[in-house]
Amino acid sequence: MKSSNLLSTVKLPGFMSFIAVAFINAMVDLGHKIIIQNTIFKIYDDQTQVALTAVVNGLILLPFIFLFTSAGFLSDRFSKPSIMRISAFSATIITLLITLAYYQGWFVFAFFMTLILAIQSAIYSPAKYGYIRQLGGDAHLSPANGFIQATTIVAILTGIIVFTVLFEWLLLDQTYHNEASLIRHIAPAGWLLVILSVVEWRLACRLADINIASTSHQFPWKDYVKGHLLKTNVKQLKTNPIIWYSVLGLSFFWGISQTFLAVFPAFAKIVLAENNTMIIQGLLACSGIGIVVGSMVAGTGEKGHIKTSFIPVGAVGMSLILFIIPALHTVSAFAAAIFSFGLFGGLFIIPLNALIQLHSPEQHLGTILAGNNWVQNIVMTACLVITFIAAQAMLSSKLILMALPIITSLLACFVWQRSKQARYT
């Protein structure tokens, strides 16, 4: 992005504190997930590993589906920094319970605590993305989204490296026979989760309330229970075709990514004959690096300018890379291909996120962003359910990977047509 636009975005009051909160939040969410996934990787193989990994990812997604309406309401009704502060404080309590589970060897309890941690994230997410527009306004949407996406991915990369290295180090020269004995060895890693949560909460307390929270409406419980509110909020997404097709494009991207993340470790474990989680997680981290690069490229340009031409380029690029991956056999080849997939993914998602925020009415922004999360997580969960069923049907990880580029190609054709309606340049 142009240096003047970049510098003005960085200098926005409170922007760097907000970025720090987003960084730590993503790292905490990722840290526990990595520990559970690495445990599954060590204990299980191929189909069982794919199935359990899909379940873990599914538990993370479910709160975003069921809390769609209430999370959007909270973000619109109350101060967004207040929502982030409360979420950060609750994360401290949750990580303390997770640490207790590690020390006691309660693997099933720790496994399902991913659900509780995800509930906190589901409430936090629409407030976070809504706060971007409050901080920078429409003129800074693209660079601010590029920053937040890059920050989230860097946090994920940091979490992968830190918690995987810590995981392997704590297991060094240790003997374990099942999940319970393994997580007792890595229990000290839980304290890092707790410390990060405390720091996040303290930083969240420094965020300024830019806009006064709405006090003019109450949560319509009757409509919520009957499902009427859900229908109304989904219709809100469809009022503007640019918002709706942007939401669908993002949903398909994250659905494909979730399937890839669930399947690839089992595939690589077989192809590379590798049992070291640092190698496998390092390969997956290459996609994050690619997304960071793609996000920064997609955030270039003048203030208020969104490069929608990157959308079809990203979709076609991802399709081509997914065709190549199942035929690869070396660590370096996998790293290059996965980085490229992330790069095209970054080009794809940043303009779509910016379009959603730009075309959302301010008074409905929280609801629309929560609705965006809801549709994305419906699609991702559906993809994980299909992946779980495929694994239970004893389909190999390679066969599942070979189906992904076909689906992505269909997505590329869809986005190529629909993105023309949102084209600015």
UniProtKB/TrEMBL annotation:
Keywords: Cell membrane, Membrane, Transmembrane, Transmembrane helix, Transport. It comes from the Bacteria. It is found in: Cell membrane. SUPFAM superfamilies: MFS general substrate transporter (SSF103473). It is a multi-pass membrane protein. It holds the Pfam family MFS_1. The keyword Transmembrane applies. This is MFS transporter. It comes from Methylophaga thalassica.
